[in-house]
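Provenance and format

Records in this collection were gathered into a single text stream. Each protein contributes a sequence line and a C-alpha cell line. The two records reproduced below are adjacent in the stream.
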Amino acid sequence: QVQLVESGGGLVQAGGSLRLSCAASGSFISINAMGWYRQAPGKQRDLVADITSGGRINYADSVKGRFTISRDNAKNTMYLQMNSLKLEDTAVYFCNAFARLSAYTYETYWGQGTQVTVSS
C-alpha cells in the first residue's frame, strides 16, 4: 500500500520555473520506479518523465532540455524541476509509483495531482 502526495504546483509566468515534489509513504518493500504524468483539459494523461530506483530516466520529447526529474531513494521522494515553462505546460501533474508490496506482488499508485498554470 502506497500513498503519494504531490506539492509545488501553482501559477507562474511563461519562462518561469517551478519544482514539484512527490512523497511516498505506506507499507512496501521498495518503489522500483516513479514518474510524473500530466493531463490538460480535454486531453489524455501523458507521461512527462519517469525514473527507476537505479536512476534510469525517460523524458517526453516536449520537455527535454527544460525539465529535470530526480529521486531521493532514502526519502522515497521524487522531484520535477521545471524551467522555461510554456503555456502548453499548463496541466494537472500526477505522481505515479510502481511498488513492490511483497515477494510476489507489485502495484501501481497515483497521487491526487497538483495544478500547474502557466500564464503569458
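Adjacent record:
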Amino acid sequence: QVQLVESGGGSVQPGGSLRLSCTASGFTFSISAMKWYRQAPGKERELVARITDTGSSTNYLDSVKGRFTISRDNAKNTVYLQLNSLKPEDTAVYYCNSGPYYNLRFNYPWGQGTQVTVSA
C-alpha cells in the first residue's frame, strides 16, 4: 500500500528555515511526480510546490517563490522542501503526495503531515 511519511517540521521564528522530508513507498517513486501541499488552520489545503519525476521541472505557489525549494532523491524515495525566510503566514501542516504533474486532482491517501509553526 502507498505510504507517505513527512518529517522535519518544527517551530521557528520569522526569517528562519526548515527542511521537510517525505519518504514514499508503495508506488514507483522514480517515475512519479511529487507535490507538497499545506493546510493552515481554518483554510483549505493548497498546493505549495511540485516536481517532475526526474526533477527537471518545478512549480511553486506564488507566495513561496524564491523562498521554498522542492527537490528529490530518487535513490531514497524521498522528496524535500527547503523552507527559507519563513513567515507567520507559512504556518500550516505540510503534506506530500504524488500524481500526474498536470493532473492535480489525483492524490494518494494523505499522510499525517508535519507541522510548521512560524511565530515570534
